[in-house]
Every structure is written in C-alpha cells, then in structure tokens.
Amino acid sequence: xxxxxxxxxxxxxxxxxxxxxxxxxxxxxxxxxxxxxxxxxxxxxxxxxxxxxxxxxxxxxxxxxxxxxxxxxxxxxxxxxxxxxxxxxxxxxxxxxxxxxxxxxxxxxxxxxxxxxxxxxxxxxxxxxxxxxxxxxxxxxxxxxxxxxxxxxxxxxxxxxxxxxxxxxxxxxxxxxxxxxxxxxxxxxxx
Length: 191
Hints:
Blueprint lengths: L7 E5 L5 H9 L4 E6 L2 H14 L5 E5 L12 E7 L8 H11 E12 L5 H23 L2 H13 L4 H9 L3 E8 L4 E7 L1
Parallel strand pairs: 1-2, 1-4, 2-3, 4-5
Antiparallel strand pairs: 5-7, 6-7
Helix pairs in contact: 4-5
C-alpha cells in the first residue's frame, strides 16, 4: 500500500485503532478514519490516539461495515485487520468498502487463516480449541469470546475462496499472501 501513497485511508472494524495508528506511522495519509460498531473499543482507541498526539491525523467514528456513511469514491485505501470474519454479511460489507474506494483505490485485509503444515496446524487447533478458551475463562472471565474466535476462524472463507469473493464483487487484481506459517493472510484488491 505504501507504493499507492494514499492521502485518505478508511480503517473498517478499527477496534482500538491499532491499524489506524500503524497506518499513520507508515503512510503519508492526510486523513485516516477508523470506524467500528463498538463504542467501548473506540473509546480505548481515542485515548491511545490522544496519548500519541495523533488526533490531528486520525478520527474514530461509530460505523458499520455494511452501511458505511461516507460518499462514493471517498478513500484511496481501505484496511481491515482481523475484522472481515466478523461481518454479518461479508459480501455486503465488501461491496460497501468498494463503493467508498476511489477508482484505483486499494483494499488491504489482514485476517486469521488455518495453517496447512501439520505440526503448526495441530498446535494452532489446540490453541484455538483449548488454550485460548482456558485463558479467556481465567483472565477475562469470558470463555465465550475466545470460543467465538475459533468458530469465526473455522467458518471464514479463506485463501482462494476469499479471493473469488473479491473477484465476484468486481475487485481487480485480487490476491492472497499467507504470513506467519499460514496463521494469517493478507488479501488485496483494487477498485
């Protein structure tokens, strides 16, 4: 995305704004907007942004991926980090993102995937099914949130399946690159 050098970036499902903050460090964007449906997460993100002195570059707003309230052709780039698997309607959310992208604009998605290497796959499955829920029960007292992580990763149409959805929706140059021994992937597409 650095080669695109976007002046405007939308971070969908921004959560506590980690990706928006990273984008402000890596890109020369004049405008970075993060949207999320969770006001609690946004409040944490706003405090982080203020502490870093980035409130002049990053704005956080309550917003839904399936009804993005910006005009058509507003952003040169859109990012989503570990959020598309939580879209209620994946194709609607991706269509909305495409709508707000400017022609030639780029979508970058970072998402969990299931590793293919047997040893990594076995450890990963053990972590998602047993260890993460146990940590959730002990530390956060919310085992269900960590159970949901496993379920959402298992259901997500990863790899070529996700690329095919981007192609179906009219994204150009859709691609997937696996990272971290296959436990995450970067997807991209252009309007």
